[in-house]
Write a structure and sequence with these properties.
CATH architecture of chain A: Sandwich
Structural class of chain A: mainly beta
Number of domains of chain B: 1
Oligomer: heterodimer
Low-confidence stretches of chain B: none
Number of domains of chain A: 1
Shape of chain A: globular
CATH class of chain B: Mainly Beta
Structural class of chain B: mainly beta
Number of helices of chain A: 0
CATH superfamily of chain B: Immunoglobulins
Low-confidence stretches of chain A: none
Number of strands of chain B: 11
Strand content of chain B: over 45%
Order of helices and strands of chain A: EEEEEEEEEEEE
Number of helices of chain B: 0
CATH superfamily of chain A: Immunoglobulins
Order of helices and strands of chain B: EEEEEEEEEEE
Largest interface: A-B, 26 and 32 residues
CATH architecture of chain B: Sandwich
Radius of gyration of chain B: 13 Å
CATH topology of chain B: Immunoglobulin-like
């Protein structure tokens, strides 16, 4: 069965600093990988996704993520964090073929300080 | 077009009451998913529909949970005899693609259920 690990429960960064959120997955075949962001009281918004092809994917709000098969990782990055980026971030994995449920990590809460 | 909508946004139920949570997916979306998100956790899968067919209900925690999508559009998640452990945010998501192919799921704002 698939699983997703987000090792960092809470991260605090200064506004303007760079950000990297870690995600490791466990799945035997080619996964679909996603990063979602959730602001308080809101649903999940898709930041970016990886299905195939270029392993560096660009998303909305200036985020990017890199798929590394050898490390079973899909880390999320942003070069310069804005205060509005403070939220909960979830990594998720889906099965390659078929429209199937996503398996989510437990999330990383991002705080941004001035 | 409108996104996924859910109602009510907040529901307080006394233990033992029945509740019904509604999800309106994006028009034309074939697949519909329900997830449960406990406080401080990631969403966990409950059940999945393709059109009106419930293809997977392996995530429903007990037989008190029941979901339906009779006309392949709106879905209702019903919880009978609610317990305190049912307190969570219930998220609905829909996607355009049926079996096979790349897809992404669009999430609604969720219904926060509090059982007292």
């Amino acid at each position: 069965a698939q699983s997703v690990t987000q090792p960092d429960i809470h991260i605090t960064v200064s506004e303007g600093a760079s950000l990297e959120l870690r995600c490791n997955y466990s799945y035997g075949a080619t996964p679909y990988l996603f990063w979602y962001v959730q602001s308080p009281g809101q649903g999940l918004q898709l930041l970016l996704k990886y299905f195939s092809g270029d392993t560096l994917v660009q998303g909305i709000k200036g985020f990017e993520a890199e798929f590394k098969r050898s490390q079973s990782s899909f880390n999320l990055r942003k070069p310069s964090v804005h205060w509005s980026d403070a939220a909960e971030y979830f990594c998720a994995v889906g099965i390659y073929s078929g429209n199937t449920p996503l398996v989510f990590g437990k999330g990383t809460r991002l705080s941004v300080i001035a | 077009g409108a996104g996924v909508s859910q109602s009510p946004r907040y529901k307080v139920a006394k233990r033992g009451q029945d509740v019904a949570l509604r999800c309106d997916p994006i028009s034309g979306h074939v697949s519909l998913f329900w997830y449960q998100q406990a406080l401080g956790q990631g969403p966990e899968f409950l059940t999945y529909f393709q059109n009106e067919a419930q293809l997977d209900k392996s995530g429903l925690p007990s037989d008190r949970f029941f979901a339906e999508r009779p006309e392949g559009s709106v879905s209702t998640l019903k919880i009978q005899r609610t317990q305190q452990e049912d307190s969570a945010v219930y998220l609905c998501a829909s996607s355009l693609v049926g079996n096979g192919g790349a897809y992404e799921q669009y999430f609604g704002p969720g219904t926060r259920l509090t059982v007292t």
